[in-house]
Amino acid sequence: MLEGQEGLTWERWFRFADAVEALGLEGLFRSDHLIALNGEPNRSALALWPSLTALALRTERIRFGPLVASITFRHPVMIAKMAASIDDLSGGRFDLGLGAGWFAGEHEMFGIGFPSHRERVQRLDEGAAVIRALWGGKEATISGRHYLLNRARSLPLPSNPNPPLIMGGKGDRGLRVVAAHATEWNFSYSTLAHFAERSAELDRVCEEVGRDPSDISRSMMLPFAIGRSDRDVQTHIAAHRATFHDLPQTANEWRESGFLVGSPSEIVDQIGERVAAGVSRFMLQQNALDDIESVALLASEVMPLV
């Protein structure tokens, strides 16, 4: 998982795409932001949807998508249309990640409306229903508070009859939206204990709304710092911190934060703990956009064991 607004260029994007495809990793995901999150003014922010279209054409095997597309940036009809078209172009390899949006600064800079958290979650809920309806292939009429469909249809349809829809959220409102719409719940940037508590709550909400909790797979998005020695691990941590200065400074602090850190065998054990708790997919965040070597080490010495 790459942060698309932190200096991602076409050269870097294609280098990672080629590496992920060649190394046998399952997929490549990226964020959806308009500016660097820590205010760096000179970092490239490669536009989301053109980069995903290019990935559909450049790769043959991997799954890919946004983690996650903000409902505040685009009307859900356009998201549904673009997602289905890219899925069709890629032969069914597209996973749509959808979120409520959170970074107020980029909305203010570009004059994009940034309503309250409650309203953003409402828009996410309605927007996901719009997308699902259009992906169903039948004429759809929806009278929502924020979005309306009047006998609407959209072609092409996604290749998968039950297209993947990844949604995050840790709070009670967000989990209710996940239970209503998602095929995958993505949990990011927190501890295993927090994941277990929120995953159990998602199970409860699913049962409350009449959905089988096993219908929703569980994934994690976490930064990883890997190396064959403590020094190499610390070098990788420093490379992450060059992008995000507020990330923890030491390996012990990374462990306390719930991130993956250490030698390949240590990371295998950390992944195993999370698999035992119900995690079935990991989107491992790489903030060092010129570092393919750590991804290659992950692929060669961690992936075969998990």
Task: Explain what the structure shows.
This protein has 306 residues and is α/β, with parallel strands linked by helices. Helix content is 45%, strand content 16%. The protein contains 11 helices and 11 strands. It has helices spanning 10-23, 48-58, 76-90, 104-110, 117-135, 172-181, 192-209, 230-243, 251-257, 264-276, 293-301; strands at 27-30, 63-66, 69-70, 96-99, 140-143, 148-152, 165-167, 184-188, 217-226, 260-262, 281-285. Helix 2 runs parallel beside helix 3, helix 3 (76-90) packs across helix 5 (117-135) and helix 6 packs across helix 7. The longest helix is centred in the middle third of the chain and has 19 residues, at 117-135. The radius of gyration is 19 Å and the shape is globular. The two termini are 18 Å apart.
- Which strand-content bin applies to the residues? 15-25%
Tell me the name of the CATH class of the domain at 1-167: Alpha Beta
Shape: globular
Order of helices and strands: HEHEEHEHHEEEHEHEHHEHEH
Total DSSP E strands: 11
CATH architecture of the domain at 1-167: Alpha-Beta Barrel
Give the low-pLDDT segments: none
Q: Compute the gyration radius: what is it?
A: 19 Å
Structural class, by secondary structure, is alpha/beta
CATH T-level fold name of the domain at 1-167: TIM Barrel
User: What would the average pLDDT be, to the nearest integer?
Assistant: 97
Largest sheet: 7 strands, parallel
Give the % helix.
Answer: 40-55%
Report the total helices: 11
